Each structure stands twice: as structure tokens, then as C-alpha cells.
Amino acid sequence: MSGIVEIRDTGPAGLTPRQIVAELDKYIVGQAAAKKSVAIALRNRMRRQLVRGEIRDEIKPKNILMIGPTGVGKTEISRRLARLTDCPFVKVEATKFTEVGYVGRDVESMVRDLVEIAIEMVREQEVIRVEGDAARLVDEELLNALLPLSEDTTDPERQESARKTREKLRGKLMAGELEERVVDVTVEEQAMPQIEVFSQDGVDQMGVDMGDVLSGLFPPTRKRRKLSIKDARPILFDQALDHLINMEDVRQRGLDLAEDMGIIFIDEIDKIAAGGREETGGPGVSRQGVQRDLLPLLEGTTVRTRYGTVSTENILFIAAGAFNMSKPSDLIPELQGRLPIRVELDNLTADDFKRILREPKDALVKQYQALLGVEGISLEFSDDAIDEIAEIAYELNQTTENIGARRLSTVMERLMEDISFTADEHASESIRIDRDYVLTRLAGIVEDPDLSRYIL
Fold it and tell me: How would residue 121 be classed by pLDDT, with cut points 50, 70 and 90?
């Protein structure tokens, strides 16, 4: 039908926004608005992949601006989102590009980092696909080193005897009984000369993969080395992977993955907002200048990498900042326009801290239980102890700098200091931390005037 965009069935593998939020809830407490926004943005990218026709090229990601104090989950939401969907993800600090000597091209390094991560992700997938074949090649190479194949094809008995001996060795090799046996194997070594590049941009911004260029000029040399089977196996495995994996295909797929599914998280973007303060001339890079350098990336431009060119039109940018000394409206209008979705994250309350200590899969309480479990200690926290830890952390945030959930790490580390130090004396014991112990260990922290020593 004219005017209707046809979309294929997403199937069970595609996560709906509600499913994405449910997965994020397993690790992050609260911040429903931010989770909802990133879930919709991610789902729209999946939808775009299934759209047919010319309209697909016109569908662009809606970049997000997260506003909230430190430690409330801005970075964690983005990082978990990327892990959940196997998207290449890179986090950069906006303040990195305000240092003296940085110019507009340098902001493109975040895209190059994204491409490197994407290519490595694709390579890891290929390694999983071919690791069985690579392991078999390694075993054959080691068997050849232990018992070379007989070249005598005229004596059937000798051939049969060699085959049986080889199978016995194969069984011992698979059982790990020959790991200390020394064998003579062929190892490839790449002789790469040191080359100094006289360029402000650096070698990774030249648009040339110098590794490929130099590997053509200086091919790897093959040397015979005597190694134990235990030491030879990883070397031979890497060589087998190099022969089984088509790196040209991996690089191209990595470029496509970065273009279509890449996520770049730009933190501390409020630090490059003017904040109503007039900038004076000087050797430093101006805040507005850095914003203008970022603008082409968010609008959509082509970045040259050593693996090829990458378009940023479909890369999802998530910017974040506390905006204590400035406002989002202090960003240049063009940059504001490229961050159409704004989400304000809430300050964490004492009840949020209580949930953070209990509910997430990676809660601090569970982390300490796992760490001391290695020592044979069964660690238990009473409900009133967790409530007291949360109240103390919240009070510290109210009376000093608000660092969000990071305050819990400060309080918990001080609480667990003595137990962690003497853990070897309590092996195979059960330790229960109650409210009285918390008050004893953390007594006077809130009232202490010299709070700086308790602040991360």
C-alpha cells in the first residue's frame, strides 16, 4: 500500500522497551524516565534496521541529554544498555577536549575508539566460531611435533603401527598428560621496525593501517623453537586463528557495526558550557570552540580511520552532565538541537540507597559476600544494618558534596575494613553485621568536622 512502511517481524530476539527497562532494573535502582528514554532510543534503532525503502536513510537516532548529579546512574544506564544489546560502546570525557593543543579533528578520536571496539567485538565472535577448528589444528601440529607423519607408504604394517601410536599420543594429549613435554614447533614472528610519525594528528589519524603496510614490507619470519606443550599451545592457537579468520571481512563488519549500532557516551558535557561566563582569549581551547568541534559528529559526518571511513549519522550519542554551574541552555543552539531528548535524573534518597544495597545483581552487599566467601566466611547483613548504612550515606551526601551512590562505596569500605583485614583468622566462620556493629564502626562520621578523610 502506498505510503506505508513495511517492517518485518522482529521475532523473539528483539527486546521491547519494557523488556529493556526490566533488564536495566536488575542493576540500576530508580531513574525510570532515563531508562524509558534509552529503551525507546534503542528499540527505534532496531526498528530502523527492519525498515525497507528509501525512508530508512532518513531515519536518524534521537540523541539524548541526561541531566543529573554525579553517582545517580547516568553512565551505568548507558553502559548496561550497550552490554544488553552487544552494541559497541565508548565513554569519553568532554573535558578531555579542552586541554591546550587540542583542535577540532581531535574530537574524532572518540569515533576511532568506537571502531576499534567494534572490530574487536566482531573478531571475538569469529574466534568463538572457529575456536573448535583452531584447537584441532593445534592438536595436529603438536602431534606432528611429537610423532612426525611417516613418509613410507610402501609398508602397510609400519603405517598401521604409526597410526596406533599417534592415536595413543592423541589420547594422552587430550587428557593433558603431555603438557610438560618439550617439542620443536614453528613460530611466526613479525619484525616491525619503529617508525616515528612527525604529525600532530598521530598515526591513527592518517587514514592508513600502518600494521598492514609494514606487514607487507616486512613479512613474518618462521623460526623453530623448543617449547613445552603447555607454552606452545597458546602460540599455535593464535597462529591458527590468524589463518582461519578473514580480517578484511572482520574490519568491514566492524565498521558497519560501529556505524549502525555504535553508542558514544559523552560525560561532563556541562563543563564545556559557558555558564554565563564570558571567555577570555588565551592559549586554551574555548568551551564554545569545543562544542562546535563536537557538532559535526552529532549532525552526521564522515570520519577517517585506519580501517576506512565511518559515517556518524546513525551513531547514538548520549551526553550527560550535572549542570551545577551552568544550564543546558548555555550550550550553543546548534548543539542543543542535536540533543533533542532531555532526561532529568533524580537525586538518590535514603530509600534508594536501601534498595541499591539489596536489589541489584551486583549490589555492594553481594560483592562483599562473594569476596569473603573466597576466605570461607559466611557474611550476613541484618536488615537494620543495611538501613543504617543507607541512612549514614544519605546524611553524608546531604552535609557534604553529593556524590550519589558512590558514597555507599566509601561507607561500606570503612565498615568492612577490619573484617577484610583479619579475614584469614575467621575462615569457615559466619559473621553477622547488625545495626550495633555499624554504629560502632561508623560512629561520629556524620558529626566529625573533618569529613574530608571519609570522602572518596
Answer: very high
Q: Which residue has the higher pLDDT, 192 or 407?
A: 407
Distances (CA, A) of 267 to 33, 109, 271, 317, 321: 19, 15, 9, 11, 6
Whole-angstrom Cα distance, residue 456 to residue 453?
A: 8
Counting Cβ atoms within 10 Å, is residue 296 exposed (0-12), middle (13-18) or buried (19+)?
middle
| 395: nearest Cα among 449, 452, 447, 456 | 447
In sequence order, what are the beta bridge partners of 183? 227
Beta strand 64-67 pairing with 316-321 = parallel
How far is Cα 317 from Cα 246, in angstroms, rounded to an integer?
31
One-letter identity of residue 175: A
What's the pLDDT at 275?
Answer: 53
C-alpha cell recorded at residue 30: 530508580
Confidence of residue 446 (pLDDT cuts 50, 70, 90): low
Q: What is the pLDDT of residue 377?
A: 87
Kindly state the cell numbers that stand for 76.
551505568
Q: What is the pLDDT of residues 317-333, one digit of tens each?
A: 999 888 888 888 888 88
Q: What does the mean pLDDT of the chain come to?
A: 79
What is the distance, to the nearest Å, from the Cα of residue 21 to the centroid of all Cα atoms in its chain?
A: 20
CA distance 361 to 358: 9
From the list 192, 239, 212, the residue with the least C-alpha distance to 307 is: 212
Decide if 320 contacts 267 (C-beta within 8 A).
yes
Span 223-251, average pLDDT: 86
